Each structure stands twice: as C-alpha cells, then as structure tokens.
Amino acid sequence: MFRSVLIAGVLFVAGCALAQPEPVGDRVGVNGMQMYYEVSGEGDPLVVLHGA
Q1: Could you give the CA distance from residue 18 to residue 10 in angstroms, rounded to a whole number?
Q2: Is this model's pTM higher than 0.70 or not?
C-alpha cells in the first residue's frame, strides 16, 4: 500500500514538473555585447545577476 502511494506521488510530482512550459530565451545587445535572458513562470519579475 505504502509503495503504491509513494509511486503515485512521485508520478504526480514528475507530471506537474513536466507540464510547465519551456522557458523562452533570447539575446539582446547591451553595451556592445550579447546578453542572454530567459522568461519563465508566472508572477512578478525576478532578476538574478552574476556576482562576478
């Protein structure tokens, strides 16, 4: 019984993760260089910058 519930839970989570749309990426010119960005998910924008 426990194993059946566990397998069903894993398949449900995997199905939800796979159901999300693929991120949309593109490149844009910024100060003479090409910068890549992706748009994915829903809600307010979140900008993540590299620390280097």
Answers
A1: 12
A2: no
